[in-house]
Amino acid sequence: MKKLLCAIAVVALCVPAAAQQYIIVDDELPILASDVDQITYEQDSQFEAHLLPSLLAADPKTKLFSDALQLTGLDETLSNYIYADYQAPSRYYYYKAHVRNEVAIYNAQRFKNFTMFVETDDALAAHGIITLDQLKAYAKQVYDEAFPEDASVTDPKDRRNSLNRFVAYHILPHGSTYWFLTFYDGKMTEKFVDTDMTDINTWYATLMPHASLKCSYPMGNERGIFLNRSGLKDGPDKYGKQVRGAKVVPANTDPDDPFTQQAFNGYYFYIDDILTYDTSTQEQLGGELWRVDFKTLSPDIMNNAVELRGNYLVDDDLYNADLSGKNGRNYTYSWDCMENITGEDIRVQLVARRAHAEFWCWQGDEVDLFGNGGSVNIKLPPLPAGEWEIRMGTNALETRPSMRVYLNGQVTIDSLGMTHNYYGAEIPFNEISIKNEILDYMAQHFFQVTPQNGGWFLVTDLTTGEQILLPQDPFNLYESTVASERRYRGFLASEQDIYSFVGTDPATGDNLNWNDRAGNYREQAKNDVLAMLPKVMKGPRECLYFTSSGNAQSFYDDYSGTIVRYPLGRIQTDGKSDNYLKLEYLPVRIGSNNELMLDYFEFVPKSLWDQE
Predict the structure, then answer these.
(1) How far is residue 526's CA from residue 529's CA, in Å, rounded to a whole number?
(2) How far is Cα 94 from Cα 88, in angstroms, rounded to an integer?
(3) Which residues are within 8 A (CB) of 278 and not within 5 positions of it... i.e. 6 or more apart?
(4) How far is CA 81 from CA 171, 268, 272, 484, in A?
(5) Which secondary-structure segment (H or E) carries 441?
(6) I need a surface site. Which of 7, 215, 249, 329 has the fewest CB within 10 A?
(7) How far apart are CA 257 and CA 249, in angstroms?
């Protein structure tokens, strides 16, 4: 890292205060730019000592793992800390999220960060591993069984090599302190799930190709961060599985965080047992439901996790975007500056919105896509071999667009309308967000509307052939380009007699009242449309949102039906290949400001998806 050195020439200047510019060096007092005569740079000779590989090598408790890190060449990967060619496109992006006026910022610099879980020499010695050769032999035994096709790869710098796999599996491609390894913060965030039904779990891709790691914080007697743990509190989970996994153990006496050891480009933690992605771990993780928060899919978003959590108990002003960041920040990213997530149209802007306790989204945060056009491509987390159903959790509001869904390049849903609530026969028509689609269906299948002279409309019942003459267009088909929005004020939408089916017989002039007929057709249209929709599931029982006072509400019992999961399709994976989801925008309906909410994904193995 380069340190800024200034040679200051004292000059008497008279500069208006509004025009003054300052230079700040190493957090010292500001210096007037006009007082700086010369700027020179020198290399900090001690900088390398602050990077992860050097700190690990200097730690007397981690000599064996450090030797393996250097032998595999992964120490060079962990010596990176910045994308030198990154340029922020601007500073701020203003947007309206449903009814809230907000602002997101671009990162001024794009850093590379890492998180390491490291067995101490004592933890390895407990398994009879004292020398580097013994560690190499252990890694070969584990990974030659899991990947027999690569058993002959002897170069430790080859990513297929067993020792390379062993080391790489201990590394996450983003930086995280202890209280951000899961969404539990030691305060109140455990209220985002029902901890009587599930442990707090977070899933990450590692630097080992096609290998994921599970971080858990059980709320039982033995609390703390566990890696690749299965269970619920102190016992087995609802499927009868219980695996302890490796635990993160204290490394210092800091009362606020005795676990985290910080480098300039990340963090490392001691663990008390050996961590591997062996065949039994793959089978264990391959039999569980993964609920993956969207922000964990990209290291670039996770590197902003501290401010994205912020003060989740406090809301910003509803009408004025907050630039101060006092309660946390929202972040936005350029499409070419995000790992694992890419877009194909600059008209779509991705925003990671900070956590709010009362928001109808899991963990209080979400990622939104604002705009209309193109598509977004998402690299899914590495899944063990098997068949998986993929679901997307979201909040179905009237501002959501329709999407075409692809899994690994194949269309699985041709048109997914993301305004679609969880519907049942008991939900009244005026609480359904797809009123327009139902009215369109009525106008196509039950009634034909023909404009007449004098502003009258002839309506034909397509079932019986009968006709009625109305003084208004009941569907707003001919009135304006905002017709679909105005329908919400009509009889059919609000069940009020503003736009009614009361008129006259065009042949006899007798008074006619078709309100009951129209209401019956509307119910039939509702049932027909709902039957044609892609499957919609309620939100999970164990996921909660809560108020600042701590009162929690289950997603499953959400009264509005808008907290939903959309099954996107199923994939078959060999556990050694990448998998991708593509969401492609379809033409948007009138009145939508196109706000696609991406909250979380569920990956459900075949052994579980029929048991729910």
Answers:
(1) 5
(2) 16
(3) 142, 143, 145, 146
(4) 15, 15, 28, 51
(5) helix 435-445
(6) 7
(7) 11
